[in-house]
User: What shape does this take?
Amino acid sequence: MESLKKILFNVIFYITIIAIIAVLLLAALFVVMKLNVYALTGDSGEPVTVLIDAGHGGEDGGAVGNSGLLEKDVNLDIALQLRRQLEFSGFRVYMTRQDDDPIGTGDTVKERYRSDMAQRLEMYRSTKNDIVISIHQNNFTSPDACGAQVFYSPNNEKSERLAECIRRSLCGLLQPDNTRDITKAGSNIYLLNNCDKPCVLAECGFLSNPDEEQLLSDREYRQKIAFALYCGVLEYTGQL
Ligand SMILES: [Zn+2]
Assistant: This one.
């Protein structure tokens, strides 16, 4: 009788211990999930959505380096790598283009360019996104000019902070000597000037600078740029 009581006591004791541990584990899991969900959502409680615009494409190659490196290809590769990194972290990502197919249509180069701009702007406006990041490479008459430059849209006050986060990240991680400030876009940057979302354009480097062109031709360096842009977005969304 005595040993039956002891067995019963032991059974109840261990069941209670297991139940307490299970409840604690569930509570911990709930806290972790809640933190994670919080980290990946914007003001609305929805996942933060990012529209990545890889500049140029199709017949429009953009700037061309001395070695023949085309800006449109550098832009697309950085954009695709940035998408992977953001999606891996739970962001919802949209792209203006995912390959080299032209966006614009029309009979003449001029018509196709206008159509390209109009369609990109329509995507900026109509895609359900919290942030727009346009990716480009720079070009200048002097081969000495180098380093990233980040422009921001004048139409949304959050754009400036997003640009600053991305500038800090690009310079801090890759270009410590780059002292170039962020720049408010003028009417010459059509898409930024007409977009009312938090919107930036990152000129990641100069294809007219031989050293930077060499760097930009390297996929690993482009991955580092994508990572710096990604860290800038994390900082902007309060996750870093
Ligand atoms: Zn460009």
